Amino acid sequence: MLPIVLDTNVLIEIFDKKSRRGEEILKKLEGHDVVTTSINLHEIAYGFNRIGRELPTEIRFLKVFEFKANDALLSAKLESELEKAGNSVGRFDTIIAAVCINRNAIIATFNKKHFEKFGKYGLKLFDIAIPL
Questions:
Q1: Given strand 106-108, what is the order of strands in its sheet?
Q2: What is the domain count for the chain?
């Protein structure tokens, strides 16, 4: 079974104890190998720090894919190709996509618009369609 990378917006829903979406996501992810990236960890930690809250302790148990040299090379290529085509999506999302592609991982995100652009490079999206 391929690993599923949780994007920052999915982590936010999961860690929001009041979120029905977070509960639904967790149900859909049962039985899957769930991970995140060091980039997503940065984003979630930054958000919690910015609002003066402690990171949830559960985050310590989440496997993290580190950003490595081959990810840097692939993300640079993806970013420049999408930029030339007028489809740039932002550096962090491009780096996250490269990490997923290099590890043959699926991304779970609510930001399908950005990540769909990487489909032609082999990125797969996990269907988490859950209404607000």
A1: 63-65, 34-37, 4-6, 106-108, 124-125
A2: 1
* 131 is a domain residue: no
pTM of the full predicted structure? 0.93
Residue 31 has pLDDT above 90, yes or no: yes
Domain extent at residue 15: 4-125
CA dihedral 28, 122, 59, 51 (to 10 degrees): -100
65 — phi, psi (to 5°)? -80, 120
The tokens for 127 are: 């269907």
Query: Do 107 and 100 touch, CB atoms closer than 8 A?
Result: yes
| 5 vs 122: CA distance, rounded Å | 14
Beta bridge partner(s), residue 108: 6
Contact criterion met (CB below 8 Å) for 76 and 91: no
